Amino acid sequence: MSTLEATDEPIHVESESHLDELIAEHEIVLVDYHAEWCGPCKMLEPTVAEIAEETDAVVAKVDIDELQELARNQQIRSVPTLQFYANGEKVQQVIGVQSKEDLVEIIEQAA
């Protein structure tokens, strides 16, 4: 890893290029597409924070209202949507609230 950015808590994505950078620089990245008005997103938030703290994955949070074009480019149709990247390649995408165990398993398989 080339950056010293703290990765034990979710990183707020500021632009499409910022997301591309995170995916390129880190081995495992979990991208959480969410919205402030989304109830299930709020339910998932503590789980995503724990994953950032407890696993080697970097967690990137994308507010779909703030970054509408990025969400459109990624064909995000509903939130929460979670995308998993390993070595710069998208390996899996899940939609809706997931258990922490299931998410950690995907990360471990991707590693």
TrEMBL record:
The record marks G39, P40 as: Contributes to redox potential value. Pfam families: Thioredoxin. Transmembrane segments: none annotated. Its main location: cytoplasm. Disulfide bonds join C38-C41. It is found in: Cytoplasm. CDD domains: TRX_family. Residues 1-111 form the Thioredoxin domain. GO terms for cellular component: cytoplasm. SUPFAM superfamilies: Thioredoxin-like (SSF52833). Keywords: Cytoplasm, Disulfide bond, Redox-active center. The active site is at C38 (nucleophile), C41 (nucleophile). It comes from the Archaea. The record marks D32 as: Deprotonates C-terminal active site Cys. Belongs to the thioredoxin family. Plant H-type subfamily. NCBIfam families: thioredoxin (TIGR01068). This is Thioredoxin. The lineage of its organism: Archaea, Methanobacteriati, Methanobacteriota, Stenosarchaea group, Halobacteria.
